[in-house]
């Protein structure tokens, strides 16, 4: 007989099952019943936590993003920190980004939300991580803090995501270097 899951272990199993359903079938075919079946539990267990599939999707995405935060590089230079982080994302997060963008397209359409609404970096700890990377650069005197708007700080990562979604492949190193050296760093001067 399987051990009964409770608390955090049960919630983890439910969110993992929901993520697997989203990955395998997309939002269009995502159902609460399928999550219940995949998690090996009962509907009341799921509905006690999330009353509908929208709230379950939001919780699942936040969970997956929190679970997939990368370690921040600290190379001693902003260029190398950003480039190292882009390389790591390119090497390890292609599936995550494409699933979140492509498999959730019908979610955005049905709920009237945008990807930015679902991927709120402040919910997942990503904003604090990226802010730390830029705070280090300010402390080293590499960049003036007033230049670092939220849009500029997100630019290299937005361009990486664009590459993922137009190629569905890891981004070649020369493209990452072009993003950093030709587009991003000149904006900081």
TrEMBL record:
It comes from the Bacteria. InterPro entries: Homeodomain-like_sf, HTH-type_TetR-like_transc_reg, HTH_TetR, Tet_transcr_reg_TetR-rel_C_sf, TetR_C. Keywords: DNA-binding, Transcription, Transcription regulation. Residues 31-50 bind DNA. Residues 8-68 form the HTH tetR-type domain. This is TetR/AcrR family transcriptional regulator. The keyword DNA-binding applies. Pfam families: TetR_C_11, TetR_N.
């Amino acid at each position: 007989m399987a051990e009964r899951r409770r608390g955090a272990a049960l919630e983890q199993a439910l969110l993992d099952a929901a993520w697997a359903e989203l990955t395998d079938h997309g939002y269009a075919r995502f159902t609460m019943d399928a999550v219940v079946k995949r998690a090996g539990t009962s509907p009341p267990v799921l509905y006690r936590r999330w009353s509908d599939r929208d709230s379950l999707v939001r919780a699942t995405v936040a969970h997956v993003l929190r679970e997939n935060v990368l370690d921040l590089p600290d190379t001693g230079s902003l260029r190398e920190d950003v480039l190292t982080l882009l390389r790591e994302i390119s090497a390890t997060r292609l599936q995550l980004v494409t699933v979140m963008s492509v498999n959730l397209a019908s979610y955005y359409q049905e709920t009237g939300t945008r990807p930015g609404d679902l991927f709120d970096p402040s919910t997942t700890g990503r904003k604090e991580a990226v802010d730390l990377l830029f705070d280090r650069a300010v402390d080293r005197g590499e960049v003036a803090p007033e230049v670092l708007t939220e849009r500029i700080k997100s630019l290299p990562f937005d361009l990486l995501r664009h590459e993922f979604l137009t190629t569905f492949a890891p981004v070649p190193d020369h493209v990452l270097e072009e993003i950093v050296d030709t587009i991003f760093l000149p904006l900081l001067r």
